[in-house]
Amino acid sequence: MVIMLVKYWIITVFVVFFKFKDTIALKNVKLTIQPAIVQYLSHSTLRCSYELEDDILYSVKWYRGLLEFYRYTPSEHPSTKVFPFEGITVDESSSNSTQVVLRNIEFNLSGNFSCEVTTDLPHMVTGVDQQSMIVIQLPESSPKISVGRDIMNTGDLLRANCSSPPSRPPVTLQFKLNDRMVAQNDPYPFRKSSERSWSDLALELVLNDLHFENGRLVLHCIAILPEVYQEEVQLELASAKDPIPQQRVRSQNGVKKAPEQTKLPYILLCSFLLRSAIVGIS
């Protein structure tokens, strides 16, 4: 009976020890993608950090979705393997046990990436972390504003259109009038190719006196991809009732002063009226 208890105690101690050892052996597996928002045909670095403690590294595997595309196994020669994956170009000279550098990144790589770290015997512990990448393409030029006419008046219907060149994803467009956001129709993205989309936004607005500032309307169009891109253009419209500036003659102290040549007619007029009055009295 005593022998059985001793055996049971020894087995329990070993089980607890190995379980505890497993929990502290491999830890803090973390994947970072820099940059995580990548311009089409650009590059990005995937870094996998981890702490082995006293364990030995068996392998580090890299996945796009569920498919492995790169593996590092220090016990093998060569220690690295690249697996075919459409759209993935691994820079092997810059990749190792803690990072993978991707070149010429294509749109199909948008999605989840993961690194899987496994330690060697006797424990064979595995840790995984996952992060997302987004592949974008910015517009090649600024948005453009077009209007029906560039001279407007109170009560007129302002019809305007803003369009942005192809991008992926399509940019969000917004209108401002004299630095104030205005209500507008829903943006309309339309596709001219299989990969990129134009963006188009229409505006219809009946103008009132509040829309004019010193007889001017300034229409802005803003193209936005949150956290990545923002481009703004503006178009100035004139009012049909622009006031014609009046010429004023001012003295140095700012008081309005008539020119000297205007005084003579007033003197002659006063002299004529005075003589008429004297003749009438006599």
From TrEMBL:
Residues 45-126 form the Ig-like domain. InterPro entries: Ig-like_dom (IPR007110), Ig-like_fold (IPR013783). It comes from Ceutorhynchus assimilis (cabbage seed weevil). This is Ig-like domain-containing protein.
